[in-house]
Write a structure and sequence with these properties.
Blueprint lengths: L25 H6 L1 H9 L8 E5 L5 H11 L3 E6 L16 E4 L14 E6 L5 H11 L3 E7 L29 H24 L4 E6 L2 E2 L10 H8 L1 E6 L9 E2 H14 L3 E5 L8 H9 L6 E6 L2 H6 L4 E2 L2 E2 L14 H5 L7 H12 L6 H9 L4 H18 L1
Parallel strand pairs: 1-2, 1-4, 2-3, 4-5, 5-6, 6-10, 7-9, 8-11
Antiparallel strand pairs: 12-13
């Protein structure tokens, strides 16, 4: 999922961008809940797969690699060789690391065979088209990492995988709308290129919502683990009924590998949490991660929030206009296909511990904490303004 330029003061531009028995199809899982439960919890070793990951060193990839190797699979990555992973670094000694560039150098992929390709770095339609066509005769399954951004503008209240996508730029959009629409159009057309090359029976499309957890390079979620660990009076934006959606990156990563093992072709919204959740419920649960005393200052005036440039604080996004349905995306199909969810407190604690580990530089932490655009640095000032407004009212 992607946010417009005017709404990117708190998160950096980023990609807004799992069953042991192999070859067990989705239809059997859907019609037999007991079998589904058995598959999800089984420790039996799956059939060994050779997996190629396009990308693999940033956020989602390292978690996919660690899980795949733990299940006995062989992994190759294809990258430019410029990004150093911040988690699971030790597993990369067991990874074949191919170097190239999706823009103009796919030579390392020529005349090679894999069971599965996972396309995490498809940021241009042409890139997906080129790699899919190059690999279609030598790879069994193509998995494309898309985004719930394909549903922009989010007008509905129950957005499903069958929702019609916008595939061409409409007329009369604002610059912000064009920015968001362009991302969704790119992802939607990239999905089509993967399906065109491999066919529906050999293609898996995964559309994640905001992925959170260790190794996130966008800083879009880290505010909550940092702030809630400190306790005290904490600003929470949004109205009581505002919904939130998010998913732990590890839940998505592990599910990818299980989808590949089971050859569960199709399109899925990788969305959580399992049950409908409001921003207040999210905060209450997340705050219980830490043994500190906290109180919450709920700022529910959208106009006040806009005046102070708070259009979102992931996973909360102001549900107005084109973003009304951004947290109303259906995920039953994904759960039926084996997507499971960690406890939110685990996600919050692990993200907090990662942020304060050697995996993150002190320079990055200081830069984040000192950024005047970040809520962490201007919270006190905004709370003061809010209290003054309440007194006036």
């Amino acid at each position: 999922m992607k946010i417009s330029k005017s709404r990117r003061l708190f998160i950096k531009k980023g990609a807004l961008a799992s069953i042991a028995i192999p070859v067990l199809g989705i239809n059997l899982l859907n019609c037999n809940p007991e079998k589904k439960k058995e598959v999800e919890t089984s420790k039996e070793s799956p059939k060994k797969l050779s997996i190629l990951i396009l990308g693999g060193t940033s956020f989602l990839g390292p978690h996919q690699i660690a899980y795949a190797i733990s299940r006995g699979h062989e992994v190759s990555t294809f990258t430019r060789g410029k990004t150093i992973p911040t988690v699971h670094r030790d597993v990369f000694k067991n990874v074949e690391q191919l170097i190239g560039d999706r823009e103009d150098n796919l030579k390392a992929l020529e005349n090679r065979k894999w069971d599965v390709v996972i396309d995490n770095s498809g940021r241009k339609v042409q890139w997906t088209k080129d790699t899919a066509n190059l690999l279609k005769d030598n790879v069994g399954i193509y998995m494309y990492t898309s985004s719930t951004g394909v549903y922009y503008p989010y007008k509905g209240s129950n957005i499903t995988e069958d929702t019609k996508l916008v595939l061409d730029m409409p007329e009369g959009l604002t610059e912000d709308q064009k920015y968001e629409q362009d991302y969704g159009i790119m992802k939607g057309n990239s999905e089509l290129e993967a399906i065109k090359a491999f066919g529906k029976e050999r293609t898996i499309i995964v559309r994640p919502t905001y992925m959170i957890g260790p190794a996130d390079r966008t800083n879009r979620f880290v505010h909550w683990p940092i702030r809630l660990a400190k306790g005290g009076a904490t600003l929470v934006p949004g109205k009581q009924e505002d919904l939130v959606q998010y998913v732990d990156v590890r839940d998505v990563a592990e599910w990818y590998i299980r989808l590949a093992e089971n050859k569960q072709h199709g399109t899925y919204n990788a969305v959580g949490p399992k049950d409908t959740q409001t921003v207040m419920q999210f905060i209450d649960e997340a705050a219980n991660t830490f043994d500190v005393k906290s109180s919450f200052i709920y700022v529910d005036d959208y106009e006040f929030l806009k005046e102070n440039n708070i259009y979102y604080q992931i996973p909360w996004v102001m549900p107005e206009g084109d973003h009304y349905g951004s947290a109303r995306i259906a995920h039953q199909k994904a759960m039926n296909a084996g997507l499971t969810y960690r406890d939110l407190k685990v996600t919050v604690k692990d993200t907090h511990d990662w942020w304060y580990s050697d995996a993150v530089t002190e320079e990055r932490r200081q830069q984040y904490n000192n950024d005047s655009n970040m809520l962490i640095s201007k919270e006190k000032d905004i709370v003061s303004k809010w209290k003054q407004r309440l007194v006036k009212d």
